[in-house]
Amino acid sequence: MFEEKTVQEICKHFQIEQEKGLSRQEAQRRLDENGRNELEQEKKKTAVAAFLEQLNDPLICVLLVAAFVSFLLKEVSDAIIITIVIFVNAAVGVIQEGKAQKALDSLKKLTSPQALVRRDGEILELPASELVIGDIVILEAGVQIPADLRLTKTWNLKVEESALTGESLPVEKDAEFIAGKTLQIGERKNEAFMSTLVTGGRGEGVVIAVGMETEIGKIASIIKEVPREYTPLQKKLAELGRLLSIVSVLLCILLFTIAVFQHRNIPEMLITAISLAVAAVPEGLPAVVTIVLAMSVSRMVKVNTIVRKLPSVETLGAVNVVCSDKTGTLTQNKMTVTTCYVNERMIPVSKFGTGNSSQELPMEFLRGFVLCNDAMIGETELGDPTELALLHMAESCEVRKTQEEQYFPRVKERSFDSVRKMMTTVHKNRNQWTAYTKGAPDVVLKRCTKIWINGSVQPLSEVKRRKILKAMEEMSSRALRVLALAVKFEQKATESERSSLLMNEKDLIFLGLAGMKDPIRPEAKAAVEKFKGAGVRTIMITGDHADTAFAIAKELGITKKASECITGEELDTLSDIQLGNRLQEASVFARVSPEHKVRIVKVLKKVGNIAAMTGDGVNDAPSLRMADIGIAMGKAGTDVAKNASDMILTDDNFATIEKAIEEGRSIYQNIKKTVLFLLSSNFGEIITMFTAVLLGMASPLKASHILWINLITDSMPALALGVDQNDKELLMKLPPRGAKEGLFSDGGLQCTIFYGVLIAAISLTAFLKLPWEILAQGQQTFTLENIASVLQDTAVLTRAQTYAFTVLGISQLFHAWGMRDVRTSVFSRRNTFNPLMAAAFVIGLGLQMAVTEVPYLVGMFGTASLTFREWMVLLVLAAFPVLAHEIFVGLFRLEAAGKENVTKNRYS
Asked: Hey, which residues are catalytic here?
């Protein structure tokens, strides 16, 4: 809107005089009316809110119900144990997210704290938060723009807007520019925007928007509108929680039905039903999953990654598309000279700094780019990135601006402007006067009549001119920004004659061309290649020009065809369905707005992808929030981007994402192993209990036995599985799991059922062992009626339950060893040693023995002391899961060998 108005119309609109600005009274009135120039901050959660958020989980809800029912049945110890597990789980989550928030706070920087303002005709320095609509702001090189401005005066003003638009090069601003229509942010040459940086020149502007009304404020509003979604793991665990809660209710109803038909004791069956309900819920699972994620987060800190949300780590393992901003993420956000054309030949960047610059790059060429340059390099770098790149090139060849300026001081200059597209500086060295002209190649070349070749000045023939034009085309085709340099020497009698002849920018000597670009991060190219091998696509989304974006994407290996590049203008013409179809091939999006980025990520998710989005700018923030996992840069990233993200890379290294994806896949594998292990154990408990009750026998297990196994015996090996070492190299050769892939996929359900049935079978065998021996001694028939009669003896029932309890508990310790890798023998060298698993086995076995041998615990759990012979027999029974595991491994090997033989025979 304001880009279409003249400066006079703007001043009239805001009722101000350019030379006076607002009065102090009017400024205060507007401040009271419109509020401070600040972005709305996201409210921090209280400790109580963070704790309650951790409890908002279906599995936790099931546990809360189990604890409540246990309390009603006066099973106080059971209720206390379950409650402790719930609180520990929530506390771990709150503590970890608190650590991440503290780490994030330490990365925050102050944004535009001060501003130069004209009020009552005086220049004042004020806090940027006190700016109001209509204020006249003074801009100088190096300052951060404090609000959205309509520029009223500009003197070679250049603004770096990459954080807002993604444009890697500074934009030249012009207060006199008038737009014929409403323009995109990156095309408004007469406006400057909050949080962007002045890299050169001076200017003044009228504040046209403050706070949430600025362009950056609008982006912050978009972020708030994007809802937070559950991660894939959270969704799967939620589904599991709902399933288990339904199973618990159905088991209770079924047992009551059986009790009525069998005319059994109803209160006794109620206790048994609650025991079954408790058996259906893996009480240790939430705590184990939380601890496993927290431990992985600690590991990721060592590889420069801060995880703000625990489940985000696992989400990375499911990612199949990484959407990345270009500037500062895939590239270094630092213009660098990569190719020069001198002495009629191309010289690549790899040859700079060889220590023999006079042979590689002419001294006059290097001196000219250093002297015809307004940038400065010292403790801090100041100036246009293009000019800084030229200084860095010269310094790599041991030519420094400070030294050259001592011998060739600048005596006159003609600044760059958008009409001439050139800059000229005049320097004096004794009696030698030299002018250097730098600018657009086509413009500079037209003004040249001679060429510098190997130290001599020669006429610029048509053949030589065509060679230069060909070099320009070649460099431009590689999306390089090309600058030409020319020189002129004068030794006329009078100083005024010399000055006028040098400043007329005619009859110049062509020195050469310098081609530069924002170079890719070397590690980013390797990461893109690894992503391909892992079945993960990389999509570049940038506000930069299409040709630049395509050239960078091609160099990174993201795309090979220009047809795979879509511009923001083209994007506006596509429906969501059409965009979804194009996304199957399109890998580059150029000249896009923040709204476009959000739409791209939204459609990617809609068609079934799990998308990660990386970025560092304000313009990336909404899409970071929309993505399944948003990844911000810690060093170059803006605070807005960091706050919108799930994860922060403290080293700004794109390749770190590859390590994070490795970790995510490994974590998912471990959590899947943990869930299957716990559920097969719980399934074994359910079948054991249910079968006994169905057959009219006494319950083989007490509620305290089940809780002991679920919370103590199971949890330690489950935790050991959660931190198991996987073959990450192998995992990164596999495609990512599908968005709809469940925890029971790839044979998980069959594994759970088989081992559940096996554990139930050996537990029932142990339970029936003593009644069978008694009936055999009395030469009685082994019938259900006789078994029930024998088990009416309290001592016999107690010992039989101890047998079942012992076998059930220890069998799960053995079962955990096999669950590390269902296709590899526990004795294989491929299986790395897991010290935590070994410790869990030894401690679990010791605790299980303590329950039957320590008098206090014997009384608490209602068990019986066992003899050495009984222990040996029960240990053999308990080892059946690992025996079954080894049999399956043998069958897998035979199947694999058979397929290999078939293949050999086919090609022999």
From this structure: 325
